[in-house]
Amino acid sequence: MKNVRPSRVKEPDLGIGYISAYLKSKGYETGVIDAFALGSGFGEIEERIKVFKPDCLGMPLFTFKVREAAEIARRAREWNPEIKVFVGGAHATALPVRTLEETPFFDFAVIGEGEFTTFELLEALAAGRGEFGGIKGLCWRDGEAPRRNPPRAFIRDLDALPFPDWGAFPLDKYFPLYAKTREFLELPVSSARGCAGRCSFCFRLTRGYIRSRSEDSVVAEIERDAGEFSARSVIFMDEAFTAEPERTRRLCEAMIRAGLHERVHWLCETRVDRADPGLLALLRRAGCSHVSFGVESGNQEILDRNRKGTTLEQAAQAVRDAKRAGLQVDTYYIFGLPWENRKTMGDTRRFSLRLDPDFANYFILVPYPGTLALKLARQGRANLKLLTEDWSRYGIQIGSAMELRDVTRAELERFQFVSYLVFYLRPRKWKSLFRIVSFRALPVYLLNILSGLGTKKRNP
């Protein structure tokens, strides 16, 4: 666990914050161990668990950290054979049965939104019931065989949920996303759940229709964060903050009326086809300082075949309009998308330079469970070649799960590395790199790249 990460821990986990708050509202005692933020090794985590003495241990399951989560569960079960371990998050939602099959130390997998399912699971355990078949959204062990229950409907009334519980998190350990130092506290906020997108490379916990909170509820939470926790910044975790422009306008106007734009600045991510000039200007007036766009590719055919639903001109216009509004602009790109090749990757690099945002992030496709990209890679289609289903190699920046049939993994990593160099080793850009990448991680990342320089190109 005590490894160097490509980026710093930026904010407490929003899902855990919500589940902790909901369980507390129902009378349960909760505790949080953020091993990433604390830099804790397995031994330290084990000691903290012994201090807490929990009856149940829950963990969000990140694909590339499945092995570490299993080791924590093993140690917890060794200390207390009666402890119940449940996991949730995107990986557990995409592969609930396989997750329990692969890891005998996990007792339950929570599928989708976790608040109600986790509460009903704890109620069943507290009552001593050994039958869990009536709990929707749960995968559990019936003897040794995993059994998956029917899905749970999405939570419709998000206002009914208590605000995320940050009291047990090590708030002094988090970095604001774009700050060089731990200058102030930045907390995550969700004003809506869901994404209407159908991108081939993305798996969403709450895919489908979008459910929004009321403006009053969001404003009240931000006021709570600023007052109780002295947060000076919030980062909206909505998958596309301006997906519903009119709702976004109402929220921004409510924040201005409450005077939040003078006390708290904020960040958001959205789509380039949901960012008109007037709306971006309103975001800035309401206190927004940074906006991020998932551009993904600089080749229109690649965008179309991967079901992104946006155009290159929309991306260029959105970046121009955001800059004119006085916003800092961050953009995301992915190399190795389905149907990608050297030429289309070159298009992406050139397009990112032409857009000239304040920040650029270049990723190599990770074919996450539950995505069309993984299905295509398993089938050897769309020029994809799956190298492994060892989940530890599914890291978003330093991983090695996939390559293209005509572009080796080493070549993909070199292309990514050179893209960062070309973008950031320009006047006024190089200092920005260290606002989003950890100094400690950079040598590890460079070593990983350099280790592949001698790799010869393999035939597809």
Condensed summary:
The chain is an alpha/beta fold and 460 residues long. The chain contains 17 helices and 15 strands.
Q: What would your notes on this structure say?
A:
A hairpin with a 2-residue loop joins strand 4 and strand 5. The protein is an alpha/beta fold. Strands 6-9-10-11-12-13 form a 6-stranded parallel β-sheet. Helix 1 packs across helix 7 and helix 3 crosses helix 4. The chain has 2 domains: 135 residues, Rossmann fold (3-Layer(aba) Sandwich), CATH 3.40.50.280; 276 residues, Aldolase class I (TIM Barrel, Alpha-Beta Barrel).
- How many helices? The count is 17
As a whole number of angstroms, the C-alpha radius of gyration is: 22 Å
Give the C-level CATH assignment of the largest domain.
Answer: Alpha Beta
* Fraction of residues in H or I helices: 25-40%
Count up the domains: 2
Strand order of the largest sheet: 6-9-10-11-12-13
CATH homologous superfamily caption of the largest domain? Aldolase class I
Uncertain residue segments: 1-7, 452-460
Q: Which structural class best describes the helix and strand composition? A: alpha/beta
